[in-house]
Amino acid sequence: MGAEHPGIEPAEQAAAMMTAAGMPRMPARVMMALVAAPADGYTAADLGERLGVSAAAISGAVGYLQRVHFIRRRSVPGDRRDRYELVPEVFYGSMTSNTTLYERTADLMDRIAEEAGDDSAAHDRSREMASFFRFLAKRMPELVAEWVDARR
C-alpha cells in the first residue's frame, strides 16, 4: 500500500498525533492524506480508497474540514468529480484565528481565580493559566508574522 500511496505511513502517524491533540480521527486522517496528495488533490473516492474507509466516513470528515475552513472542494473542467485540497496557509491561519479564544479563556481563568475565595492553590493555578493564554494571544500573531517573513 505504501508504494501505491506515497507518504501514507507518515500521514497516518501525523493524523494520530492530531487526534491525540483533540482533532476528530477521521478528519485528521483526511487532512493528512490531503497534505500528501498529488498536485491535483484527491476525489472523495480517492480518499476512501487511500484510507480504506467508506464514502460516508469521507463525507462526514470532508464536511467537518470544510466547516472549519481547512480544506476546499474544487471543480476540474472536464471531470464530473470534485477534488479536495488543503486551503493555502491553513495551519498558521488557524493559529492566529484562535487569538480570541485564547483571550476569552484567559478571562474565564480570571473569573475562576476570583471565585476561588480562600483557596490560594486554585487562585494561583487559574491566574497562571490566564497569563499563559494571554501570552498565546499576544505571541501567536507575532510568530505567524515571523514565519511569513522567514518564508520570503
Mean of pLDDT: 88
Poorly predicted tracts of residues: none
Corresponding CATH architecture of the largest domain: Orthogonal Bundle
Total discrete domains: 2
The description of the largest β-sheet is: 2 strands, antiparallel
What topology emerges from the helices and strands here?
Blueprint: H1 8-20, H2 25-35, H3 44-51, H4 55-67, E1 71-74, E2 83-86, H5 90-97, H6 99-115, H7 120-151
Write structural notes for this entry.
The chain is mainly alpha-helical and 152 residues long. The protein has helices at residues 8-20, 25-35, 44-51, 55-67, 90-97, 99-115, 120-151; strands spanning 71-74, 83-86. The chain has 2 domains: 8-87, Winged helix-like DNA-binding domain superfamily/Winged helix DNA-binding domain (Arc Repressor Mutant, subunit A, Orthogonal Bundle); 94-151. Helices cover 67% and strands 5% of the residues. Strands 1-2 form a two-stranded antiparallel sheet. Helix 2 (25-35) crosses helix 4 (55-67) and helix 3 (44-51) packs across helix 4 (55-67). The longest helix has 32 residues, at 120-151. The protein is elongated and about 65 Å long. This is GbsR/MarR family transcriptional regulator. Keywords: DNA-binding, Transcription, Transcription regulation.
The gist of it:
The chain is mainly α and 152 residues long. It has helices spanning 8-20, 25-35, 44-51, 55-67, 90-97, 99-115, 120-151; strands at residues 71-74, 83-86. The radius of gyration is 20 Å and the shape is elongated.
Keywords:
mainly alpha; elongated; single chain; 7 helices; 152 residues; 67% helix; two-stranded antiparallel ribbon
